[in-house]
Amino acid sequence: MTTASDTIRVVIPLTIRKRNGRPKILPPEDAGMADGRSQDPHVLRAIARAWSWRRKLESGAATTIQDIAAAEKLSDRFVGRMMRLAYLSPEVLERLVIKRVPPALSLSDLAAVAERPWAEQMDAVFGQCEGCEGCEGCEGNDALCQGPLLILASHPAQR
Length: 159
What we know:
alpha+beta; two-stranded antiparallel ribbon; 4 strands; about 15% strand
């Protein structure tokens, strides 16, 4: 029989999100990154391209998305979809580009989020919980939410 003193419970706050079709464990926001380069380079490159394309359209260097697609040798559908990244909210862009916080979404989902109002984008991109499923301690308050918790136990019966 196992007593409470035989069991060690370790609780690690983390978020599990799919990126590029694979599960990825994201650390809590307050966990500092050692090298500051946690951001996926594809996300940074896509945002830079989107802003470059937006500037070309605004300056008149290109008149349509089809012009950009032809110059870049890409499909106009892809260019149009990725151009949405240039319309992400300033708060989302700051966290992605400056603070290097990885998004909880794939790149194509991130582009789709850009169509939402700015007020909704932060929760959609960084995976704040909706309804606090799998979360402990926040009691429905998204501001306190840490995301799902991974619970590890030292006793084999509790694994």
